[in-house]
Write a structure and sequence with these properties.
This protein has 345 residues and is α/β, with parallel strands linked by helices. The chain contains 13 helices and 13 strands.
Length: 345
Amino acid sequence: MEVPSIFLNKILLEAAKRNAYSLHLTVGSQPVLRINGELVAMEAEDLLTLEIIEKVISSFASAEEQERLKKNREIILVKTFAGSFRFRINIFYQKDLPSLTFRYIPEAIKSLKELRLPPAVNNVPKVKSGLFVIAGSHGSGKTATSAAIIEEINNNFKKRIITIEDPIENLFISKRSLIEQREVGRDLTSAVDGLQYSIEEDANVIYVGEIERELKEAMPLIMELASGNSLVLLEINADSVVRVIEKIFTYLKDKISPEVYRYNLSDILYGIIAQKLVPRVGGGMVLAAEVLLANPAAKSLIREGRIYQLESIMQTSRREGMINMAKALEELVKTGEIKLEENLN
């Protein structure tokens, strides 16, 4: 076969040419691209063998990273190929065989306007303290939204920003703000250690990337930071506003009583955006998102644990900038950007 690094560069270049969102390598299959939400096989390529997959991994993963993969059975890395193309790489096992997913990280950070986020998100960079959650499933654009918020702060405010990421995806250059990016496993032994460090620092903004494995232990520290003088931007893998709050309650239930954590969350929460990418008519993807802002009515429902009624708050508070997912999709259908039958189930 070709030299593994040459083979990998070739198929990554092809993925870029075809504007693929991701590239998937699995033993026994041809390389597969995800284009406009659909999986497309690279039919000109041969079926991938275990030997090919292992050589591809060895071509870019360090000995220490391969040892972590062997121990944990999965690892997420960010690597640069062909000089300047950065990819987030998820290596994992299925059927006791290694598989890989590559996702391109654009060099330029898109602005809030370019991402076409709901207008209410434009106010987040101005918030001085509290908790703002960016939610969505894998591949929903959470990290792009987080990066746009951070860059907006960086461009317009004199703040000290600390990021805790696993791994670091977007690379920021300090402008008006001072940005310190810390990677779990390289700069930090754990995300919890990074949060503990942040409590002892004078950070104005703390961004916590998706840390699913540590979130239960980290959640009390996140609450403490958000209740002080810091704005905490937190990514959570959840598909709706209600599911975000359910998860936070689950993480806290073994630490403090329900009454206390409900009151604490209602006090510190600024808002939640839950987003997803849906196929656009004519090609490409478009963002759909629901937004909850913690107004007095929402805070009251959270304190009382009646979180399923937050859906009605989002429906009736459009003037405040809120919107639920059904309405967001409906508006995209009205503008002709997405198809009704594919997205309004």
